[in-house]
């Protein structure tokens, strides 16, 4: 089963995605995916041997293929594997932004000297400045990364809808 999962290429994944909607014959899959019938049949047989696709031959003229539970779980797992890096990156960005904001809040506090110092020995001082490095740039970079990820997700969703309209 693991070897078959490694053998999933673009064509086989496209076949699995198409079969996720409904049952198809080889001719229908050929028309929907824009590939030749022998190519579709070759890949469908590999998917059938792997247990991802089931052949439905009920004595009629057409032989249909449908997705098995194993095939559905492979499609779900592929979605999860694609979302894991995005979720990890978003979590890291949120943690970095939180750390930067918290650190900036600590740095902006003013510190006063508690013991008495005669007025003439204290040099003239302007407005108090924050101690330490300024991490504002880190917050800006983090927000830009989050915005880029959101725009990329929107773009991919639009592209997916356009492809689905063209396929069906």
From TrEMBL:
<dbReference type="InterPro" id="IPR036390">
    <property type="entry name" value="WH_DNA-bd_sf"/>
</dbReference>
<keyword id="KW-0812">Transmembrane</keyword>
<dbReference type="InterPro" id="IPR001845">
    <property type="entry name" value="HTH_ArsR_DNA-bd_dom"/>
</dbReference>
<keyword id="KW-1133">Transmembrane helix</keyword>
<feature type="transmembrane region" description="Helical">
    <location>
        <begin position="82"/>
        <end position="101"/>
    </location>
</feature>
<dbReference type="InterPro" id="IPR036388">
    <property type="entry name" value="WH-like_DNA-bd_sf"/>
</dbReference>
<keyword id="KW-0805">Transcription regulation</keyword>
<feature type="domain" description="HTH arsR-type">
    <location>
        <begin position="1"/>
        <end position="87"/>
    </location>
</feature>
<protein>
    <submittedName>
        <fullName>Regulatory protein ArsR</fullName>
    </submittedName>
</protein>
<dbReference type="InterPro" id="IPR000835">
    <property type="entry name" value="HTH_MarR-typ"/>
</dbReference>
<keyword id="KW-0472">Membrane</keyword>
<keyword id="KW-0238">DNA-binding</keyword>
<dbReference type="Pfam" id="PF01022">
    <property type="entry name" value="HTH_5"/>
</dbReference>
<keyword id="KW-0804">Transcription</keyword>
<dbReference type="InterPro" id="IPR011991">
    <property type="entry name" value="ArsR-like_HTH"/>
</dbReference>
<feature type="transmembrane region" description="Helical">
    <location>
        <begin position="135"/>
        <end position="158"/>
    </location>
</feature>
<dbReference type="GO" id="GO:0003700">
    <property type="term" value="F:DNA-binding transcription factor activity"/>
</dbReference>
<dbReference type="InterPro" id="IPR051081">
    <property type="entry name" value="HTH_MetalResp_TranReg"/>
</dbReference>
<dbReference type="GO" id="GO:0003677">
    <property type="term" value="F:DNA binding"/>
</dbReference>
């Amino acid at each position: 089963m693991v070897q078959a999962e490694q053998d999933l290429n673009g064509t086989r994944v496209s076949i699995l995605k198409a079969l996720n909607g409904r049952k198809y014959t080889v001719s229908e899959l050929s028309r929907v995916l824009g590939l030749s019938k022998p190519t579709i049949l070759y890949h469908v047989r590999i998917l059938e041997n792997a247990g991802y696709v089931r052949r439905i031959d009920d004595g009629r003229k057409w032989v249909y293929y449908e997705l098995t539970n194993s095939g559905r779980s492979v499609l779900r797992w592929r979605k999860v594997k694609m979302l894991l890096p995005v979720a990890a990156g978003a979590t890291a960005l949120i943690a970095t932004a939180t750390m930067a904001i918290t650190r900036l809040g600590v740095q902006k506090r003013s510190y006063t000297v508690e013991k008495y110092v005669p007025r003439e020995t204290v040099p003239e001082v302007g407005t108090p400045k924050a101690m330490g490095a300024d991490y504002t740039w880190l917050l800006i970079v983090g927000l830009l990364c989050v915005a880029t990820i959101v725009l990329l997700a929107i773009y991919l969703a639009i592209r997916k809808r356009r492809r689905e309209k063209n396929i069906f």
